Amino acid sequence: xxTKIKKWGNSQGLRFTKTMLDEAKIEVGDDVNITVQDGxxxxxxxxxxxxxxxxxxxxxxxxxxxxxxxxxxxxxVGKEEW
Length: 82
Description:
By secondary structure, the chain is of the alpha+beta class.
């Protein structure tokens, strides 16, 4: 993909297509590490939060003896309806 570096406020920026971000497994808001290697800019995803947790793995860690219980949070302070 051919693109241009553009002025963005006091900085410079690039735009990436959704397809390109999907291929790199990067989503808007993800942290990335940017380095320069041999005169090339390299962008690497950092602990992609969207793939960090697995719901099945998290649920499997719940104790077999766990019993949910109702919690009294006190009187309502806004427009809550109970």
